[in-house]
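Lab notebook, bench 4. Still working through the backlog of constructs that have no structural model yet. Next entry is a single chain of 284 residues. Request: give me the structure tokens for it.
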Amino acid sequence: MVELMRKRYGGDAVDGAIRLVSGDISVGLVTIDAVAEHPLDTASRSLINAESDLYFSVPESDVIIKRVVLPDEKYLDPRKLAVFEFSAMLLDDPDRYYIEVHDLIGGKEKLVVGYHQNCIDQQVSFFSERLIKPAGFKLRSLALADGYRYFCNPEGGELICLVDITANRASYCFLRDNRPALLGSLRGRKVESGGESNYHGKFIIDLAATLQFQASALFKSGHSVPLSRILVSGNPVSEELLTQIEQRLNVSTGFPSPKTALFRSAVVPEAGRYLVSLGLTVDH
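Model written out:
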């Protein structure tokens, strides 16, 4: 049986709000028909079609992330070995985690993510009460990568960096040849000025220093190509913020460019601010 049409939602809960996108799935193709931000404390079932799938994001601060370098042993199962290495470094029972393994560029490295079951179960309960029972979840920075790779036009050279900014954090993901190479997050602070959220100069300095350090780490680990482009998603994000990042890092910085064919026309102008939520609708 081929499922011809189904609704899928991506919900990114940040800053007391939920950034929600909805898309129609038709024979495997997702077309986004709505993007919006709603207060989390007033979110209700009216926002979501009951006969649909909801996927939510998990911040990097709520998980354990480990890069595992695999030995040159063709008889070992790479995934099982990565899980074993991850489990060995835990201080508590591995059964308390949902564990997933991702391929990193280069082949020998795996990215292992451990989600605390208690945290996930609390999130599932929250969304089940307010909206619908979620069908799944994804790390913010991995959702950010999926949002770009599926819904945006490719930009830059071999190595680019995606950043999603909220009022109190920034998630980032470096892509090498369009595949995740390194990811993480940074805590920030906000100030109110003229009714709009703006970032302290210190946050920009910290963000630039973090990205510069991580790009250097990639270079030392064998990714000997320059960082060619930084694409920034999220809210609040302004042209002024992009300019500050570009000047600090001396790397071309801009907004992502959505593939217009995958969106309703009215959604396109705001789509680039919702990369994490968009990535949550990508199933692979």
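Notes after review: Residues 191-197 have pLDDT under 50 and may be disordered. The domain at 153-256 is CATH 3.30.420.40 (Nucleotidyltransferase; domain 5). Flag for follow-up if needed.
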